[in-house]
Amino acid sequence: MQTPDGKDIIPGCEPWSADGGPHAVLVLHGFTGNPQSMRGLAEAFAEAGFAVDLPLLPGHGTSVDDMLTTGWSDWSAAAEAAYTALAARSDQVVVAGLSMGGSLTAWLASRHPEIAGIVCVNPALSVPEPIVTALGDMIEGGLDRIPAIGGDVADPAGREKAYDATPLAPMLSLAAAADEFRGDLGKIACPVLIMTSTQDHVVEPVNSDLLADGVSGPVERVTLERSYHVATLDYDKDIVAERAVAFAQRVTAD
Fold first, then answer.
1. pTM higher than 0.85 for the full model?
2. 254 tagged catalytic
3. Could you give the CA distance from residue 208 to residue 218 in angstroms, rounded to a whole number?
4. H/E stretch holding 207
């Protein structure tokens, strides 16, 4: 399978969708990840009767070189397009995301008050300033990537098919976008479900607190004690699916 611009997609990392309805769920993957990390959750929503769209974000699922030329504007535009298309054929839409997908989820909810509810798993809402400075210094020094940040999973059976390197300029783009839209979190008035791993080696758990404290809508929180960052593939993946599906059913109930 190929992307719309002709790039070969890594097997197992393809976008996925399912018919259903009348309600729908948009599912968004994380930075340097792809739909493989969210496929189980997407399928759980589908099995519960929701229409589901799990897109492959630009620059992901092919090669790190392809991602080097992408940034927040590309990923947010893709998320916006996917949401618009799903909303056009559904009565109500829930949005769910992991890590950067959680950032995109919150961003969409700040722009679309009609969203029924959002689910954020270990959302990335802030990149520490020392890291931002270090990334800029590395780029000025001629580096365009560093070792991978993907694959943070406690369960040996839960392998994530993320890139084996982290592109620096796109990561700076994510950091800048998070700083910019964090001030809009108060516009999120819909119900919010936040699931947070106590041991996360990629995104500090305090990011979940930033989201919970910033939104104006009701917040439900779940602590994931056995999982690392990619909780959707980890020991608590069944808890993630069960709580997310129950939440989506509740906020879309007629």
1. yes
2. no
3. 14
4. helix 206-214
For residue 119, the surrounding DSSP H or E stretch is strand 117-121
Domain ranges of the chain: 16-251
Q: Return the residue matching tokens 């709580």.
A: 243
The answer to whether 23 is a known catalytic residue is no
CATH code at 16-251: 3.40.50.1820
Q: What is the pLDDT of residues 109-155, one digit of tens each?
A: 999 999 999 999 999 998 888 888 999 999 999 999 998 877 899 99
Residue 4 is classified by DSSP as: T
- SS3 assignment, position 44: helix
Query: 197: which 2 tokens?
Result: 């791993």
Phi, psi values for residue 88, rounded to 5°: -65, -25
Among 37, 99, 110, 227, the active-site one is 99
Mean pLDDT of the chain: 95
pLDDT, tens digit (0-9, with 9 covering 90-100), for 44-65: 999 999 999 999 999 999 999 9
**207 half-sphere exposure, CB direction, 13 A CA radius:** 30
Catalytic residue check, 112: no
